Please model this.
Amino acid sequence: MSIDTEDRPVADPSSPDPMPDNSLGGIFRAYLAKLRGGEVGSLPAVLGLVALVVVFSALRPEQFTNSFNFANLIGQSAGVTVLAMGLVFVLLLGEIDLSAGFAGGTCAGVLGVFLTRQEWPLLLALVAALLTGAVIGLLIGLLVARLGIPSFVVTLAAFLGLQGVLLSMIGEGGTIPYRNDFINGLNNSNLPVWLGWALAVVCIVGYAATTYVADARRRAKNLTVQPILLWALKAGLLTVVVLAVVGYLSVERSRNPALTSLKGVPVSLLVIVGLLIVLTFMLTRTAWGRHVYAVGGNAEAARRAGINVFRVRLSCFVLCSTMAAVAGIMIASRTNSVNPNTGGETTLLYAVGAAVIGGTSLFGGKGRVIDAVIGGTVVAVIDNGMGLLDQPQGTVWMVTGLVLLVAASVDALSRRRASATGHV
Amino acid sequence: MSPLLELRGVEKSFGAVQVLRGVDLSVRAGRVTALVGDNGAGKSTLVKGMAGIHLFDAGDYLFEGEPVKVTNPKDAAALGIEVVYQDLALCDNLDVVHNMFLGREMKRLRLVDEDTMEQRARETLDGLSVRTLKSVRTPVASLSGGQRQTVAIARAVLWNSKLVVLDEPTAALGVAQTEQVLRLVRRLADNGLGVLLISHNLNDVFEVADDIAVLYLGRMVGQIDAASTTRGRVVEAITTGVVPEGGAA
Model:
């Protein structure tokens, strides 16, 4: 193999980075170059989302676009989205967790048993449920990372096993109701309108200010930094989206406002955004997060660099199952009860689909937590919109399957494109 | 003065296959020691044992005259031993800075300190007169072989290491890049570091090495002073496992 670097553009040694083009056109061209290089990120998912929303809005203008349905959609998608956020960590390793859905159901069941049957205090029952998730993840992680059993097989076994655990915990055809306002409120109630606006402002100002300060500091130290215009575009886009969403959710959406008022940002959205911020921070700002990417990208290189690959793998499985516990509680909260099918049926498959549709690679090493949120929204819009079109469930599943196939193809094609052009 | 690194009677087997049969090796600070040998002589196994990736089955491992236990890559790094592998061991999905600090990220308030890491990475690359990298934030996947080699060597130098082990650093490089890397190797030794250079290319070896250690089927044939020998003698030692008369140091 003959390799020479002489044919590559060699920058002037005094400035290691060529002066970036900071104009609007320059930013756009840089983005296009990235896309052509195969770094498509979440763009296909976002475009797909826009297309789906346009189609459903055209076909069912009354039902699809009203704010009641919008809030409903968030509640419907919350469980799958939270599950997908946890799965991103396992997918980043190039592994899979098929048991996450029923792990969530089992943890929701544990919550039901302790909260409703044993009448434990809320906090204790909640800790027990989350701990159950962590222990499930620990066992799966040990089997995968220590014994080296493929995660597909381990989690397939756990999928079957946990389904049984949930069924025997609750009993054939039974349910455990939740009678706790906090738990039931997680995926049913709304924030006061003023609080929604306040959090929106905190979000926007927080993002704009922290990124601006960080950029300014890097600029002062002469480090690589995004153009100010790009920062403004990102902050502006965030502002528009957040204000539009919060504004729409602050509209009265009750069919009979005199009887019950229904307005404000759903609590479930707050849970999703909160988890998104915390998990993204862990993945991008901590050494552990870097190690997750490293293990997913090249486990042998990570090992030689002295990274404890075993512990990184284990922690990702524990995190995934713990997030599954949160997801299970969100799903059960929606119906105020747990049944033997909580977290079953299509939940897990939708969640894996959501992460992949959002742009997380099944091959490991590439993905972000926000992929899960974008992909989860796509899946929810399909499910919700097809339902409004009075399509039979068969059609819904066929369409969802098709979308997932398209997303997986985009992933595979962009990888080929990326390796051909020398990107990731 | 005792050698920087000394191995005595080192042995290693993989199942029934004995790869190293009582190997002695010493590397002195400020000198480039070349490790040569034919394919299958055990060079890579020897290096992996030094780096703590494999454990030697038997033998003594001395560093700065003291017996040490190296059971994992962290132990080796703690002693100041850095290895640049033939396959470079870089993560394609991470950028240059993250690769250089892989496993040893600098932290501020327990968070990854990207700013300082990027500054230090660039200082190190500038110190090595590296002009081929467009940006230290480029993913390694998009770099050429020569650029990757540069990143890997820069990573080894970043840590004020005492001994740098280079496994076939010029194997995949063009003429100009080879020249640059060899100059870099010489500069490392001139700065007082011990350098162990594993190479097939005797041109490279005779250009930079101070002494030459020849491995033959898992045995150390001998460590020869480069100035007092010739290429023909080294080739003979590599192929026959016997140091010709008058060649031994």
In short: Residues 44-183+268-411 of chain A form a domain with the ABC transporter involved in vitamin B12 uptake, BtuC fold (CATH 1.10.3470).
